[in-house]
Amino acid sequence: MIGPASSIYPRAALGPTLQGYSQGPRFIRQGDTTQPPAHARSVLLEEFRSNKTRKWELKDLFGYIVEFSGDQHGSRFIQQKLESATVEERQKVFDEIVPHSALQLMQDVFGNYVVQKLLEHGTQVQRNMVAGVMDGHIMALSLHMYACRVVQKAIEHILPEQQASIVRELEDDVLKCVKDANGNHVIQKLIQCVTPERLGFVGQFRTHVYELSTHPYGCRVLQRCFEHLRPDQTRPLLDELHRHVITLMQDSFGNYVVQWVLLNGSPEDVAFIASQLRGQMLQMAKHKFASNVCERALAAADPERKRLLIEEIMTPLPDGTIPIAIMMKDQYANYVLQRAMKLVGEEQKEALFEKVRPQLTNMRRYSSAYSKHLNSSAC
Questions:
Q1: What is the rounded end-to-end Cα distance, in angstroms, of the chain?
Q2: Which helix (H) or strand (E) holds 65?
Q3: Domain PUM-HD, which positions (predicted)?
Q4: How many domains does the chain have?
Q5: Which of 101, 119, 232, 289 could form a disulfide with 66 if both were Cys (CB 3.0 to 4.6 A apart)?
Q6: How high does pLDDT run on average in the chain?
C-alpha cells in the first residue's frame, strides 16, 4: 500500500517572468512551447532546420547562438556540442550569451538548458559570471518555471560565497518560495548543497511545521531539512511536529513527513510516534493516509512497541468486537493487518494467526482481494 511520495506532487502554478527581460529574438512565455513563425527565423536557422544532410559544427552557429538556443532543435544541438567542445568554442558560446542574453535564455523553454550546460561544463570564472548576472533576480528566477532549473544548476556549481548570496536574496520571502511549485525545488537544492551554518532561513520554519507538513511542496522541503540539517536545527522542528503527529498522520501530505521520520529518524522520535498510535491502531489503520503510517510504524518500532501495537489489534473492544475482523474487511486496514502478520514476533505469531484463521473461514464465501491476500499470509 505504501507508495513513493513523489507520485502525488504535480508541478502546477507557474511563477512570474522577470520584468524588463521579456524582449529579444526568442523569448518564450511560460507554458508556450510553440516555435516562432518561419519568417521570424534567420536564414541560417531555417537552413539548419531543413538541411539534414549537412554536417553541422558548433562554429557554424557563431553569431547566432542566442537565436539557436531559443529553438528546440538548435538548443539540443548546442547542448550536445558543448559537452565535447574545446575551451575556445565554449568561450565563444559563452560570450554571445553572457551577460546580455543570459536572463532572457534562463526563462526560455529551450534556452534554459543551454545556460545549464554552460554552468555544468564552463570554467569557474564563467560560472561566477553567470551567477553575477543572476544577482538581484534570484527570487523571480526561482519562481519561474524554466529559470528555476538554472538556479538549481547554479547552486550545484558555484562557489560557497555565491551560494550564500542566493540564500540571502531568498531569506526575506523564503516561505513564499517554499510554497511555490517552482521555488520549492530551489529551496530543496539549497538545503542539499549549502553548508547548514549558512542556511539562516531555516529558522523561519519554526512555528510553521504543521503548515509546511500539510502543504504539497512544504512537506518536501521539511523532509530535506530533516535529512541534511544539523541536530540543533532539526530538533525544534521535530519537537513541533510531535505536537501534531496524530493529525499529520491523517493528512494527505503530512503522512509522508511522519513516515520519513519513522524511516530515517532517531530511535527516540520513532518511539514517540509509535507510542502515539497506542489506543488508536484500529481507527488509524482504517484511514486512507494514516494506514500508511501504521504500516511504517510496525516496521520501524522496537520489538516491545511493535508487540504492544499488535496486541492492541488482537484485543477485543469493550463491545466484544474483534478489531482483526474489522480490519480484514476494510480497504485500508487489511494492508496493516497483512504487514502485522509479516512482522509479528515469534512469541505472538501463533496467537495472531489463530485469531485470523476463523475470520478467514467466515470470509471465504466472498471473493475479494483482501481475503485472498490475507489467506496467503496466514498459510
A1: 21
A2: helix 65-69
A3: 40-379
A4: 1
A5: 101
A6: 89
